[in-house]
């Protein structure tokens, strides 16, 4: 029993981190966000709401500068102030912003937001346990190896979620009459908008798939849907 005690501690540590992370994220979003009020974007979200047969899609502005969209564990959709400012400046079209909202809706509908929080706790528990085990056999280096291994696993899971959310967004955009052109054109802009330089980073380290791979997946889905419709 004693030899399993470190593993038990690791699990309890992961659960504690999970609960703290949920509380901290929820409090941060509550404090630093307001509901989006934009006539043009509302018209597009209303189109998507009709396609989903729901009354409305509520979107919030999260008051931070990095360009991003996110889906909270409680199902709320957020666009950062930095992203909204780029839209207001004309760098991003209303339809492209709608594609971001559709993507975040995909994360909610497919359970990614909640699962990512659970994965976070499990990954931290596994990271701690693995660091303890490897630390006994490979002092000093073991914990770093454990952290690197878990980071690779988290990146792989994240990429899978992104592909699924992309596919959901594509289907919703097509059904609502917006189409996937804005989704694909936004991907072409993202590296510039976010300041990321994904081309220099190996794909297996990245948390998001590379742009050309995401666009190719969208086009493959479109071809499949068109073939099924004939």
Overall description:
There is one protein chain. This protein has 230 residues and is of the alpha+beta class. It has one domain. Helices cover 69% and strands 6% of the residues. It has 8 helices and 4 strands, in the order αβαβββαααααα. It has helices at 5-31, 39-52, 81-88, 94-109, 112-137, 141-175, 181-194, 211-229, and strands at residues 33-35, 59-62, 69-71, 77-80. The chain has a 4-stranded mixed β-sheet. β3 and β4 (77-80) form a beta hairpin. The longest helix is centred in the last third of the chain and has 35 residues, at 141-175. It is globular. The termini are far apart. The relative contact order is 0.12.
Report the order of strands and helices: HEHEEEHHHHHH
Count of distinct structural domains: 1
| Shape verdict | globular
pLDDT averaged residue by residue: 78
Sheet of most strands: 4 strands, mixed
Side-by-side strand order of the widest sheet: 1-2-4-3
The share of residues in helices is 55-70%
Instruction: Give the amount of beta strand, in percent.
Output: 5-15%
Oligomer: single chain
Distance between the termini: 62 Å
Q: Report the strand count.
A: 4
Radius of gyration: 20 Å
